[in-house]
Design goal:
Oligomer: single chain
Radius of gyration: 38 Å
Distance between the termini: 63 Å
Structural class: alpha+beta
Strand content: 15-25%
Strand order of the largest sheet: 9-18-23-20-19-24
Helix content: 40-55%
Number of helices: 20
Length: 736
């Protein structure tokens, strides 16, 4: 049967009578919004699609429809295949029905395919899982009278002024705000992760309710409200597609921007609370709200490159329906044309003007999505790294890359294997392949500047730390912080009654054995004399060891210099046994700690030979230890000099890793390194770190002992490929 007879065959398809159709003005031309009241779905149709829909009466053929379209749109160059494509699209959307038997079976098959595709997309969306919802319209109608005053013009004006004032205050006092912000590891640690998780759920729930009530205010309906797991945090989503039925584009824009508006108000309130309160739960919650609303608004919701609120605002403002799908289709056509030399069948319904802008939008959108996945992966990697779980971040990033690459390769495979009259031009394919390989080689093999960052703490140059060697109780402190000592001067005297008792017991045993030795000699008993002599020698050896321990209870200065106080230790809430010695708190050498027990390894004080000269101690993670060496250039930024970068170099690198760090570096005390407090009150790092000494210029007057900061060690240029190999090999423990 020839194509001509097929095109004149009657189509047994009829437009569904219960559909609700409304015309909206888009870009000076008509755009029809179709509402399916049964499936509660909405579709935007171009004028050509609408003409086909209303003329499908079960009697017309494809040729009849083509004649109608040519008569209505004489500037279009249509083929029977184009008309067939329009009909198939309407049928796929579920807008058509038929009187033929067996159509219900095909609908069931379509429903099964749709469900399968939906679950497949859900499984491939690792960062955004959408679960089925319920119809919230009755609940929205119930609560709408309570929120209706929020849509009054005066209320909106007051909120706009409040939001503007809050963010203007941030801009005016930006440096003051930035100085109060915590570090990365301090923010993403401990209970704050739980607070952040709850804040995401709370803010995104209000965000979706902002859409829902704005839609209800203008007379729209919302028929689906469900749970979405967004970046591993549960939140709500709300379907407000009914706003497409609004004739006014400004009302559609208002509904699309309703969620972002709610987040702006929340962030403004949080800014006021955070700035007005001190450290505590309320202050932490306010900071979390600021972070979530700012990142959510800037990175996703308000960004038109993602198919969220900003995208629909842009689409309605430009009056371009289905902006993303048109841009993707035009980009695909351009890639086929230039890379494969294949001309896809022209689509007469695509925009005829400004196609370059559509292609640019599609490219920017895809690049931004890739960058967003990379940023989320790096954030998770940096957050999980101190807990030795960074492999989870790597797996997430690799999974996303594999899924995206797999989809791209599958599309290329289908393109190359699809039968067509026009074959792929080998010349175009070879040139595009070589260009792709060259770009990949440049990205992977081109050396780029590299660096590692780590926290630092300033201390006096050449400082020596004085520790307790033998545990005991403080009897006397000879010098206080700020005083000067010479090498060998006594600084602290300790006592240990258990060691003294052991010494007295041994001396008693010594006297007994000496008496036994004299008795055996008087009796000329050689065997008994030898036994007594051996016992006496053993006792004398133990006495010498205990006397050395007693000597170490008298702590002396290892070098000459100024005495600096040791870090403070807060009182423990642990209940103490009645027989347990009183432990020290505060500064170990203070007067109130006289008689307190000092464990071995307790930091008593520090002695600085040159108290006016300083050096920076950088705490470098073990994964970067082998990448640095002495004399490497370093850029320092101190908390006391936030706007100044100091350029210097590495002077020394420790060979052994640290197990404990000063409190100032711990994330529990506004620092960057995650630590846990051991039974002695010391801060123990969760992963091995190494000390790197950095020279500090003497002319920096604002740098003093204890000042914190960040160090950026500039490494030799490294290729991206070597960095990726090193990252993967470290995480998965393999070598080539």
């Amino acid at each position: 049967m020839d194509q001509n007879s097929t095109s004149r065959r009657r189509l047994p398809l009829i437009a569904r009578s219960e559909l609700v159709v409304l015309q909206n003005a888009f870009g000076g031309s008509g755009c029809w919004v179709v509402k399916d009241p049964v499936a509660l779905k909405y579709y935007r149709l171009e004028a050509e699609q609408y003409v086909v829909l209303i003329h499908l009466d079960g009697q017309r053929s494809l040729q009849d429809l083509k004649d109608l379209l040519v008569l209505r749109f004489p500037w279009l160059w249509l083929t029977i295949r184009d008309v067939q494509s329009l009909v198939s699209d309407l049928q796929e959307k579920g807008l058509l029905t038929t009187v033929r038997l067996g159509y219900g079976v095909s609908l069931l098959h379509k429903d099964w395919r749709d469900r399968k595709q939906k679950w497949k997309q859900t499984a491939m969306s690792l960062l955004s899982l959408k679960l089925p919802g319920v119809d919230p319209q009755r609940t929205l109608n119930m609560f709408y009278p309570a929120v209706r005053p929020l849509f009054h013009r005066l209320t909106l004006l007051v909120m706009a002024i409040f939001v503007s004032a809050a963010w203007l205050s941030v801009l005016v006092n930006f440096e003051a705000f930035r100085s109060r912000l915590p570090g990365f590891q301090q923010f993403f640690t401990g209970w704050n992760i739980v607070y952040l998780w709850l804040v995401i759920a709370f803010t995104k729930t209000l965000h979706e309710l902002g859409h829902a009530f704005t839609n209800r205010h203008f007379g729209g309906e919302s028929h689906e409200l469900g749970v979405m797991v967004l970046i591993f945090s549960p939140t709500l989503y709300c379907d407000v597609t009914d706003s497409w039925m609004f004739p006014s584009k400004w009302r559609r824009i208002a509904v699309a921007a309703g969620g972002v508006a709610v987040e702006l108000v929340l962030s403004s309130i949080a800014i006021l609370v955070w700035w007005s309160t001190g450290p505590g739960l309320l202050n932490n919650l306010a900071l979390n709200v600021i972070f979530v609303t700012m990142v959510g608004a800037i990175a996703a919701n308000a960004n038109p490159l993602m198919r969220f609120d900003g995208y629909y605002v842009l689409s309605d403002w430009l009056e371009i329906p289905n902006l993303a799908s048109k841009a993707d289709k035009l980009l695909r056509q351009a890639l086929y044309h230039y890379c494969l030399g294949v001309e896809l069948p022209p689509d007469p319904f695509m925009p005829r003007h400004g196609q370059g802008w559509f292609i640019a939008y599609a490219i920017c959108s895809k690049i931004y999505k890739c960058l967003l996945v990379v940023m989320i992966t790096l954030m998770l990697y940096r957050w999980l790294k101190p807990y030795n779980l960074e492999v989870l971040g790597v797996i997430l990033g690799l999974s996303s890359a594999v899924i995206a690459s797999g989809k791209l390769l599958w599309e290329m495979y289908k393109t190359l294997t699809t039968p067509r009259n026009e074959k792929v031009k080998k010349k175009n394919l070879a040139i595009s392949s070589l260009a792709g390989i060259a770009i990949l080689a440049i990205v992977v093999l081109l050396p780029v500047p590299w660096y590692v960052e780590a926290p630092l703490r300033v201390q006096p140059k050449g400082v020596q730390f004085v520790y307790v060697d033998t545990p005991g109780q403080i009897e006397r402190t000879h010098v206080q912080p700020g005083g000067w000592v010479e090498a060998g001067d006594p600084v602290v005297d300790l006592s240990n009654s258990e060691i003294q008792l052991a010494l007295n017991k041994l001396k008693t045993e010594q006297a007994i054995e000496q008496a036994n030795l004299l008795t055996s000699r008087s009796r000329n008993d050689a065997a008994l004399e030898g036994l007594a002599l051996r016992r006496l020698q053993g006792i004398l050896g133990r006495i010498r060891e205990i006397e050395k321990q007693l000597e170490r209870l008298h702590v002396t200065a290892p070098i000459a210099g100024e005495v600096l106080r040791a870090p403070r230790r807060e009182a423990s809430n642990r209940r103490r046994d009645d027989l347990e010695l009183t432990s020290w708190t505060g500064v170990p050498t203070s007067a109130e700690n006289t008689g307190a027990a000092m464990e071995a390894g307790t930091h008593l004080m520090s002695i600085a030979p040159e108290p006016s000269r300083f050096e920076a101690i950088v705490y470098l993670d073990q994964t970067s230890r082998n990448s640095v060496s002495e004399k490497m250039p370093v850029a320092l930024r101190f908390e006391t000099l936030p706007d100044q970068i100091v350029h210097t170099h590495i002077t020394e690198i420790s060979l052994r890793h640290l197990e404990h760090v000063p409190q100032e570096i711990s994330n529990k005390y506004q620092g960057d390194l995650p630590t846990v407090t051991d039974e002695r009150g010391r801060e123990r790092v969760t992963s091995a770190v190494y000390q790197v000494q950095i020279a500090v210029p003497e002319e920096l007057a604002a740098v003093r002992s204890g000042v914190r900061g960040r160090a950026r060690i500039l490494l030799p240029a490294r290729t991206l490929g070597s960095w990726l190999y090193r990252l993967v090999s470290v995480q998965f423990r393999f070598r080539l």
